[in-house]
Amino acid sequence: MSFTGPSMGSGGTTARRAFEFGRTYVVRPKGKHQATVVWLHGLGDNGSSWSQLLETLPLPNIKWICPTAPTQPITVFGGFPSTAWFDVGDLSEDAPDDVEGLDAAAAHVANLLSTEPADIKLGIGGFSMGAATSLYSATCFTLGKYANGNQYPGNLSAVVGLSGWLPCSKTLSNKIEGVEEAARRAISLPILLCHGKGDDVVPYKFGEKSSRVLASTGFQDVTFKAYNGLGHYTIPQEMDEVCTWLTSKLGLEGCSS
Predict the structure, then answer these.
(1) Per-residue pLDDT tens over the stretch 190-220
(2) Whole-angstrom distance, CA of residue 125 vs CA of residue 135
(3) For residue 188, pLDDT beyond 90
(4) Which of 163, 199, 210, 211 is catalytic?
(5) Is 108 an active-site residue?
(6) Can 33 be counted among the known catalytic residues?
(7) Residues 93, 107: contact at Cβ < 8 Å?
C-alpha cells in the first residue's frame, strides 16, 4: 500500500504538503523545573488525553508539552482524514515511510523545545505513532539533520517510545556509520522502549526489532521492556517504569508520592 506522497503541481514541480498542527496542551511542573518533555499521542488522538494522564504522574520536576498532530488523509483508512504525525499505509516490514510527514513532525517537536531555558534537560516521548515520531526525532538529533538535509537544532537527553516502532530503520546504520559526531551522540542518548506482547495494532515484534536495530547501529543506552498480556494501551506498571527511568536518566530530584 503506497503512501500519499507529494502531489505534482503545474509545470512538473513537486507541491509540498501543508501541515497544520492542532492545539498544544502544557502541564506545568509542580516543583522545581528541571526537564521538559514533549509527549506525542497516537493516531486519531489529541494532546489533551495524554496531558491529563501525565499530570497525575509523580514527576514534579518535569514540564510536559502535549501537541496535537495535523488532521490529514490516512492511507490505511482509505484516505479518510485523522489526526496523525505522518501518513501510514500498512504496518509491514516493507511499508514505505512518509519521510516528509516525519520531518515536519520532528521539526514541530524541536520547535516546541527550542524556547526552553538552556539549563533545562529536554526529552521526547510518545505512544504508538507518537512513539515512532519520538524515535525518528532521536535519529534526526543523532545525525544532526532531518532527512531533507535541514539542520536539527537542540539537544536531547532522553527518548521514550511506548507501543511504537522505528521509522526508516533499514537506512539508519548507513547514515550513522563513519560519522563521528553521530556515533558519539548515539552512544550517549538514553532510549526507553516499552511494548505489550498482546499488542494487536503495532505487533510486539516491531518494538522488539526496533530495539535491536537501535542497539546494532550504536545506540548503547537502549532499554526494552516487554509486558505479558498487554495490548495496544498503557498500564500503571508501565508508567511507573517510565517515571523511574526518566528520574534516573534526567537526573531529577526524585519522585514525590
Answers:
(1) 999 999 999 999 999 999 999 999 999 999 9
(2) 8
(3) yes
(4) 199
(5) no
(6) no
(7) no
